[in-house]
Design goal:
There is one protein chain. By secondary structure, this protein is of the alpha+beta class. It has a single domain, classed as Alpha-Beta Plaits. The protein is built from 3 helices and 4 strands; from the N terminus they run E-H-E-E-H-E-H. Strands 1-4 form a two-stranded antiparallel sheet. Strand 2 and strand 3 form a beta hairpin. It is globular. Bound molecules: iron/sulfur cluster (2 copies). One iron/sulfur cluster binds next to strand 1 and helix 2.
């Protein structure tokens, strides 16, 4: 499982994916005001970008496999962790 772009048009330029990704998968295109998946092969499937994407522009795909790192990176920034708890209870994201 790794990150994938669901719909670039949904990206609202919040930069959460750029700021949260521990693997620097994204960079930000200032002119377009959208993130760019520059190094998707580096994704380690932590899902922080997906969980905190304000536009719903990202998804987690089963096409490529990674391994889960820490789920705590977003905790310092975002107080509402409902989705994270839900993910922990169900054992993963996206019906894994
Ligand atoms: S799932 Fe994690 S490692 Fe992969 S792009 Fe998103 S934040 Fe980066
Ligand atoms: S987190 Fe989502 S909406 Fe925000 S910049 Fe990244 S892709 Fe765009």
């Amino acid at each position: 499982m790794s990150v994938a772009r669901l719909d670039l048009n949904l990206c609202i330029g919040c930069r959460n994916c750029v700021n949260l990704c521990p693997m620097d998968v994204f960079y930000f295109d200032e002119a377009a005001n959208k993130s760019v998946m520059a190094y998707p092969e580096n994704c380690q499937s932590c899902a922080q970008c997906y969980l905190h994407c304000m536009g719903g522009s990202l998804t987690m795909s089963t096409l490529r496999a990674g391994y889960a790192m820490s789920g705590g990176r977003g905790l310092r920034t975002f107080p509402n962790q409902t989705e994270l708890y839900k993910a922990e209870e169900t054992g993963g994201w996206g019906g894994r």
